[in-house]
Inverse folding.
């Protein structure tokens, strides 16, 4: 509560609040970056599942999409922080927001662990690990996590659907 | 049937009423719309960046296109379906909204761009399939495509900020003034969930 009160009075927050075009602009950039993330995750997961990019090794696929994933996550972080600073009550009191942040943390940990594991044991990943059922399940789960993140992100605007779990001000 | 009557009949349809009266349907439809559009944009961007010679340059263009093609179309179908569902809940307001009209115009441009690409430079794919970048006409189409789709996303987001949906079901009123001191909650002045 104190944090929200303080954030909403910062010069940056006040600037965002008074310039009405900032929030929609930042949200739009956020969506563009989500597009890059979700497509990158999709292509890596499809490669793991063997549904796309079969002419490429797993490492080549990750080398192509990994950096785009990382950099769009940075853009998402920056635009996300701007949205929190601009409308702290809307975000920080929303149940959807915290659920979303938990999934973002899980999704980021999985993506990072996967890239480290692939770099360390590249040969074994290409030859056998990628064919394990557990790996393929993880690929599907990862995609579902990012889709869940998108849904929860949109639901921040409708946080009242959570009933008593939501403390967000009515939009 | 004139436009006004058509919009009114869409809006009073059982489906539109059902979506308006549900607490969850509109938010979930909108979420599905975002899933669809981010996949459309992301997969199209992969193809466009390949044409521009920015990424995936060592793979033939046709392979990239084959990898993403069906996902782009499936996601596009989802986006159109959910877009229509949102439209009918408040048809006259969306129809009159200039950001909505601009977005539809941009979508038409995107379609036209693809059509021109397919009919011209797309016909000679075999000649440049393995080149790191497409010929100038292909690169122009790719750059246009990226600009158009980013415009579509911006215009789409602006629709949410410039239309009001007074009928949409909202949760129980919360006494914000009681929760927080004055001056905090400027955002709640807007009626539309966004």
């Amino acid at each position: 509560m104190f944090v929200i009160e303080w954030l909403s009075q910062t010069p940056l927050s006040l600037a965002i609040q008074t310039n009405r075009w900032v929030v929609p602009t930042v949200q739009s950039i956020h969506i563009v970056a989500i597009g890059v993330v979700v497509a990158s995750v999709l292509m890596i997961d499809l490669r793991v599942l063997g549904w796309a990019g079969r002419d490429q090794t797993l490492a080549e696929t990750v080398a192509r999409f990994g950096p785009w994933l990382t950099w769009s996550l940075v853009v998402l972080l920056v635009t996300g922080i701007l949205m929190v600073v601009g409308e702290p009550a809307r975000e920080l009191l929303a149940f959807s927001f915290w659920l979303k942040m938990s999934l973002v943390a899980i999704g980021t940990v999985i993506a990072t662990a996967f890239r480290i594991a692939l770099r360390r044991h590249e040969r074994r990943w290409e030859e056998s690990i990628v064919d394990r059922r557990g790996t393929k399940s993880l690929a599907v789960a990862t995609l579902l996590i990012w889709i869940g993140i998108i849904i929860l992100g949109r639901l921040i605007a409708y946080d009242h659907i959570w009933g008593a779990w939501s403390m967000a001000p009515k939009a | 049937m004139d436009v006004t009557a058509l919009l009114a009949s869409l809006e009073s349809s059982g489906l539109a009423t059902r979506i308006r009266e549900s607490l969850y349907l509109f938010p979930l439809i909108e979420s599905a719309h975002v899933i669809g559009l981010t996949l459309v944009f992301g997969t199209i961007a992969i193809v466009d960046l390949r044409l521009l010679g920015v990424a995936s340059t060592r793979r033939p263009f046709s392979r990239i296109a084959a990898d993403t093609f069906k996902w782009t179309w499936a996601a596009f179908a989802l986006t159109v379906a959910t877009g229509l569902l949102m439209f009918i809940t408040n048809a006259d307001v969306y129809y009159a909204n200039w950001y909505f009209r601009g977005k539809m115009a941009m979508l038409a441009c995107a379609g036209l761009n693809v059509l021109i690409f397919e009919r011209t430079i797309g016909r000679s794919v075999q000649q440049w399939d393995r080149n790191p970048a497409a010929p100038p006409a292909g690169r122009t189409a790719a750059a246009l495509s990226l600009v158009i789709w980013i415009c579509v996303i911006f215009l789409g987001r602006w629709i949410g900020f410039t239309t009001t949906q007074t009928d949409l079901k909202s949760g129980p009123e919360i006494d914000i003034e009681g929760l927080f001191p004055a001056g905090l909650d400027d955002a709640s002045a807007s009626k539309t969930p966004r």
